[in-house]
């Protein structure tokens, strides 16, 4: 039997297979961040195509962290009904329902949020972006609380898992960057300080999930390699997230995806993570070919294969992959 289509259990939650739809922003919420019939149908369709877990797109935890005018929200009671409908439809279609939570930080949109951008330091994420205002420790702790409240709201709506977005340059990832994080307090400096905001946020979220829901954390390394993010940094980050109560680690990759060695050797990021922790690993990055997704699991690069753009093109990707691998 295909390993990609073997069921798996994680802390009492059963996945019918190892295929994951990773979070990809659709811009189909309404302007107040509420789920629409269109966005619910989008995710339900991929779930009905046989996907094991659907991770709903980056969903803002606070108005000040909005990145997209029609981005999905979990910041207010007004979002609860739509989130509940979305989780329910994913369950009806047989998928584990997960949702990613984000604060845009320096990559937020002032037009969408109505407020200036913020970050660990006054460093622009790009030449054409506004300079973010450095956060105080009290403000950082408030944002951690927003993540925790949004997570509790998502679980109450019926989601099985909550993913903390610690990747792709958004707020929590910007703290990990030695070029964006120039702080001289306990949240800056060496990796132990720079990862503190993400680790503490995961701890706060975990405290609000209860026993039944999973905590996932997504991280990306490819966007920090050039600034000197090295193997010891990665190892400390993985151990820190494990200690914070993360149940599943989601690695976002680039280039050759699951099979690329980032630290000057032949071991992939997933293989290196699996040598450090017993946590289940999701890997995303050019796994749209069913044979590659199968190989990623068979060779120990990951436990779950995330399929992004290929699933946008083919909502039945999972079913088509199952048939292809059975031939």
Task: Outline the secondary-structure elements.
Layout: E1 8-10, E2 13-15, E3 19-21, H1 37-48, E4 53-60, H2 80-92, E5 96-102, H3 110-113, E6 118-119, E7 133-134, H4 137-156, E8 161-166, H5 171-176, H6 191-194, H7 196-209, E9 214-220, H8 231-243, E10 248-252, H9 269-276, E11 281-284, H10 290-298, E12 304-306, H11 309-313, H12 317-326
Parallel strand pairs: 3-4, 3-12, 4-5, 5-8, 6-7, 8-9, 9-10, 10-11, 11-12
Antiparallel strand pairs: 1-2
Give me a quick take on this structure:
36% of the residues lie in helices and 16% in strands. The chain is of the alpha/beta class.
Give a structural overview.
The protein has helices at residues 37-48, 80-92, 110-113, 137-156, 171-176, 191-194, 196-209, 231-243, 269-276, 290-298, 309-313, 317-326; strands spanning 8-10, 13-15, 19-21, 53-60, 96-102, 118-119, 133-134, 161-166, 214-220, 248-252, 281-284, 304-306. The protein is of the alpha/beta class. The chain has a single domain, classed as TIM Barrel (Alpha-Beta Barrel). The strands form three sheets. An eight-stranded parallel β-barrel has the order 3-4-5-8-9-10-11-12, surrounded by six helices. The chain has a two-stranded antiparallel ribbon with strand order 1-2. α1 (37-48) packs parallel to α2 and α4 packs parallel to α7. It starts with 7 loop residues before the first strand and ends with a helix. The mean pLDDT is 97.
